[in-house]
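Holo model, iron/sulfur cluster. Inputs:
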Amino acid sequence: MNYHQYHPIDVVNGPGTRCTLFVSGCVHQCRGCYNQSTWRLDSGLPFTLALENQIIADLQDTAIPRQGLSLSGGDPLHPQNLSAVKRLVQRINCECPGKDIWLWTGYCLNELSLEQWKIVGEISVLIDGRFIQELRDPSLIWRGSSNQDIHVLR
Ligand code: SF4
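Output:
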C-alpha cells in the first residue's frame, strides 16, 4: 500500500484530536473529487512498517492523547489496500485499547466484499458512498454529499 499524507495530530477528520492517514488508490472517480491525486495506487509513498509503528506510538502517546485514527484517501477499502489496512486496524485494536477507528470509503455498505467486511468488523465508524456533486452539502459534518452515510458500528 502507498499513502499520501499522515497527520499525527488532526482535529478536522473525525471527532476529537486524532491521527489521520490518507492512503493511495481509488477506483470510484467521483466528479468533483477533492483528492484526485490519490487515485493511482502507485502515487504517494510506500506505507512502511516504520510508519505503522509510528501510528501505534502516536495513539499510545499520553502527552497528546488522541481519540483514535481516521483512515481516508483515496480509498482504504481498495482491494489492493486491504491487507495493509487490516493489519493496521488489528494492531490498533490489540495495542491501543480504547481508541476508535473511523474509515471513509467510496463503496456503499451493500457493495462490500467479504474481505472488505473483515475490516469493517474491526472499526468503529464507517462513512460510505461516492461523492455526488449534485448532492454536495457543505453543512454536513464529516461527509461531502447527502448520499453518504455515517454508520456507527461500535
Ligand atoms: S471515493 Fe473519495 S477519493 Fe475516491 S473518487 Fe470519490 S471522492 Fe475521490
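The first strand starts at residue 2 and ends at 10. Helices lie at 49-60, 82-95, 114-120.
Archived with the compound record.
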